[in-house]
Amino acid sequence: MRDVVEQLQRLGMSGYEAKAYVTLVVAGQPLNGYEVAKRSGVPRSTVYETLGKLVGKGAAYELRGPEEAVGYLPLPPKSLLERMRREFDDSIESLQASLPTIVAPPGAHMIHNLKGTEAVLARAEDVIAAARTDLFLSIWPDEMKQLCPLVGRVAERGVEVSIVHFGPAEVSVGHLYEHRFPVPDSVIENLGCSLLVVVGDCSEVLIGGFVNGSAWGVYTEDPAVVLMSVEYIKHDIALQIIADRLGHDTLREFWNSDPELMRLRAAHGHPAALLRAVGMPDL
Prior knowledge:
This protein is of the alpha+beta class. The chain contains 12 helices and 9 strands. Helix 2 crosses helix 4 (44-56).
């Protein structure tokens, strides 16, 4: 019952209203205010005000008996949930039209930092769900397991999805390219963490780092950062295509012997160390 009360609160009921409604549902018969207060824990001093609010919202009904006795019955849960769904959908539709009209032009591009796996993945889900035209991801298996169902739904509605996935993927979604060159273990060794990059509609990006059970992240709408993130993923995908076309052994030999490529790869350690120091100071 506690979980039901909490969920009803999330949908707009106060704590007292949720407790009173659940009590009426469980009772299965009309209850007066005294009985609702006794069974629900709603104070007697406020129970009639609470029941009145439920009646006003259409979530409960008054039944008047002999000598003006008043009882209360709940709106059946199925009907209540359908009504809440309709009201929620109507509000969203209205806000989609009205809310953008009152937004002031930003003085600076939005950017904020995130800490912890849950926060990083939740923000990644926001970017994925908001995509309408294209979606670019650079992702590792652990993060793909959580985000794959949502990515699949986005692809099904026509968004062009391009993914570079480090190692074999359990499910192929959109245009998915397995990152096999260089091998994922060498990427981890070079960077010191696994990076998640999610770019939606070439207008917003979530960049996250995961290592030793900790995570940090940065979200921004800055066009320069978004552009670099898209190009980073495109170049990684291009490298996988080139490796498949030319042969991994041939490209590996070139990769490990060309002095300029070796110089560029060797420089990755310092920025990776800076990222870890800024994003995860406790590591």
